[in-house]
From TrEMBL:
The gene is dinG_2. It comes from the Bacteria. GO terms for molecular function: 3'-5'-RNA exonuclease activity; nucleic acid binding. Its EC number is 3.1.-.-. The keyword Disulfide bond does not apply. One of its GO terms (biological process) is DNA metabolic process. This is 3'-5' exonuclease DinG. Gene3D superfamilies: Ribonuclease H-like superfamily/Ribonuclease H.
Length: 181
C-alpha cells in the first residue's frame, strides 16, 4: 500500500431517514469530518468538522438522533457544499496526499455529490479503505464497524459516534495501528 507522510482521514455524515428516502429529497452530505494523521508518529496534526447546509433535503429527527446534528445548527453554521469543498482544497490540498475512510461509503458519496453538484472531485487517487485494511490485518473473516474495531484494539471511542469530526479522529487511530502492524 502506497502512502504519503501525512494521510487525510475523511468521515462524512449525510441526511438520513428511518426507512425510505422521502419523495423529493435525497441523501446529502451535512458534515465533512477531517483528521490529518502523521503516518510515522501516529499524531493527529489537524482535526476539523465542516458543517454543510443541505440544499436538496432536510435533517430528519432520525438523523438528529443518530448524529446530534440539527437542521437549525446547519441553517446557522453550515456552508454550501461548494464552499466546503473549496475549504477542503484550500486548507488540506487533498489531491497531494493519500486519503482514507472507514469503508467505501465516503468515497462513493463524495464522488456522487460532486458529480450531482457539478463540482470537481477534490481527492487524490490513493485511497485506503480502513475497514477492509483492519479486517485483513486483524485476520477477521468479515469486516467490523468502527466502534467494534476500536473495542478490539482497546482504544476508547473519543467524542460522539456518528459525528464526522470525532469519527475521523477515531478512524485515524485504527489506521495508525494498521500501518504499524
Amino acid at each position: 500500500m502506497k502512502t504519503t507522510d501525512k494521510i487525510i482521514i475523511i468521515d462524512l455524515e449525510a441526511t438520513c431517514w428511518q426507512g425510505a428516502v422521502p419523495q423529493g429529497q435525497q441523501n446529502e452530505i451535512i458534515e465533512i469530518g477531517l483528521a490529518v494523521l502523521d503516518s510515522e508518529t501516529g499524531q493527529i496534526t489537524k482535526n476539523k468538522g465542516i458543517l454543510i447546509k443541505p440544499q436538496r433535503s432536510h435533517v430528519s429527527p432520525f438523523c438528529t438522533e443518530l448524529t446530534t446534528i440539527t437542521q437549525d445548527l446547519l441553517d446557522k453554521n453550515g456552508v454550501s457544499f461548494e464552499d466546503a469543498i473549496n475549504e477542503l482544497i484550500d486548507e488540506y490540498n487533498p489531491d497531494l496526499y493519500t486519503w482514507a475512510s472507514y469503508g467505501q461509503y465516503d468515497l462513493n458519496m463524495l464522488k456522487k455529490q460532486c458529480k450531482s453538484f457539478g463540482i470537481s472531485y477534490p481527492m487524490g487517487d490513493e485511497h485506503i479503505n480502513v475497514k477492509e485494511h483492519f479486517a485483513e490485518k486483524f485476520g477477521l473473516q468479515r469486516s467490523t464497524g468502527m466502534n467494534g474495531a476500536l473495542q478490539m484494539l482497546n482504544i476508547p471511542l473519543e467524542g460522539t459516534h456518528h459525528r464526522g469530526i470525532d469519527d475521523a479522529k477515531n478512524i485515524a487511530k485504527i489506521l495508525h495501528w494498521c500501518l504499524k502492524n
